[in-house]
Amino acid sequence: MGIFIYILLSISIILLLVYIGLYNKLKEKFVLKTITSLSFLVLGFYNYINNHEAIFIFLGLLFGFCGDIVLGLKERFSKNLCIMLGIIFFFIGHLFYLIVVIKGLKENFLYSLLFTFLLSIIFIYFFNKKKYNFSKLKPFCYLYLLISLLLFSFSLGNVVNKIDTFKIVIALGVTFFVLSDLLLCHLYFKKQNNTIKLFNIFLYYSAQILIALSIFWY
């Protein structure tokens, strides 16, 4: 990797650590959140201009960035509207990521679909059992859950199919993404918890940084 990628990666990690460190101390978090989100987008863009074949990965990062900004505005505007728009942005971003991982999936396609189906049943049962309060957002949440689990299953299927650096890095990024989404689901629709929030922030930005970095090996 070139020195500039190392610099951008270092800036992204430093901003993430600063954001986590200051999260409970800042009254106004939106500016720092936006700058931290911008860092993974810049990292992804730099890798993209050196590898235009990774256009779908960069578009996924771009829509993720937009979704992150919209969710950051939920305290200033309608909370449900911001969450709904955020889900839509992230859903589109995941569609772009899905295009990428499906390309490399061959033998394990049906197994990945079956794994997605089983995970969907487990999580929907869990959400209903624990009485998560999705309210009117339930259809959006369940559709987003489906595409997240598809992305997770297909990225793992890719690694099983053939191990290389790109597939490992993006699979790790997707795994972190899904875990962060599950924590965010708990925070939005069940119960607020500062410790869970910090883990969510760490997993989410780590996921986007890894996905942005994966472009280098694509």
Q: Helix/strand/pairing class, anyone?
A: mainly alpha
How many strands in all? 0
Whole-number total of structural domains: 1
- Residue share in helix: over 70%
Regions with pLDDT < 50 over 5+ consecutive residues? Answer: none
| Total helical elements | 8
Overall, the morphology is globular
Indicate the mean pLDDT: 89
Radius of gyration: 17 Å
* Helix and strand element order: HHHHHHHH
Distance between the termini: 13 Å
- What percentage of the residues does DSSP assign to strands (E)? under 5%
Q: What's the story with the biggest beta sheet?
A: none
Commentary on this structure:
It contains 8 helices and no strands. It has helices spanning 3-22, 30-49, 55-72, 79-103, 109-129, 138-161, 165-189, 194-214. The chain has one domain (3-217). Helix 1 (3-22) packs antiparallel against helix 8 (194-214), helix 3 packs antiparallel against helix 4 (79-103) and helix 7 packs antiparallel against helix 8 (194-214). It is mainly alpha-helical and 218 residues long. The model has no long low-confidence stretch (mean pLDDT 89).
